[in-house]
Amino acid sequence: MSAMSHDQDVTRQFDDVAAGYENSAVHAEGPDLALFRHAAERLRPGHALDVGCGPGHVALAVAPFCAHVQAVDASPAMLAIAAERARKAGHSHMDIREASATRLPFADAVMDLATCRFSAHHWRDLAAGIREIGRVLRPGAHFILTDSVAPDDPLADTHLQAIEVLRDATHVRNYTVSAWMALLAAHGLAPLRTDHFRIRLMFADWVARAKTPPARIDAIKELLSNAPAEARSRLGVEEDGSFHLDVLTVQCEKRGY
């Protein structure tokens, strides 16, 4: 039996778990959603793009303030949920289509706003995805990103990456804040504002949402229970395996390369 490519694995995984992300408190709520909404209200973009839209939380949040919204994702099941939610909300100006972040089906410099939330840590080639977002943004347009970030401490970082990939094999990496800042700058995206917060991931919900197999759940528990005190403290590990994850929201402006 031949192995699937990473892109194929991402599609399979998120088609299988799409419904869980529509109602997940981690994804359907959060202080960063208000930042997306307020930015769109201030900017009033003509053409907005949500990359890795999932069930449409960000696209729906910004839609009332945009003339047209494109929402793309690699998972047809996620897109079906987003399309139905857009229909119920009366957002006929939302166009929802299947696409990879690294191959956006849009011309250069056509978007006034791009958004991406809790998707980039699944991209096999992060730089290619950010390059594509930079390509489709017009000069002076804005990009708003939210993603989980890695601790600067290598010990805690190693344990976080291990439990993330055990929980969901499509996870690639949580990047440090400094790595994000360097990558954005390298692709002409100048940070204007950064916001930081932590989310508590309740262990049972976290693994159920990804439909993690029992053997992998046991491995995560074993890894967390035997992690060094420094790593447990940095990640805020609790007795039941729940832990805390750092999150970055950064608002950027597209500058010339």
Automatic annotation (TrEMBL):
Share an example GO biological-process annotation for this protein: methylation
| Taxonomy, superkingdom | Bacteria
InterPro entries according to UniProt:
Methyltransf_11, SAM-dependent_MTases_sf
State if Chaperone is listed as a keyword. no
Q: Say if the entry is tagged with keyword Transferase.
A: yes
Q: Name one GO molecular function term.
A: S-adenosylmethionine-dependent methyltransferase activity
For this protein, the record's PANTHER family field holds: 2-METHOXY-6-POLYPRENYL-1,4-BENZOQUINOL METHYLASE, MITOCHONDRIAL, METHYLTRANSFERASE
Task: From the Swiss-Prot or TrEMBL record, give the protein name.
Answer: Class I SAM-dependent methyltransferase
- What species is given as this protein's source? Acidiferrobacter thiooxydans
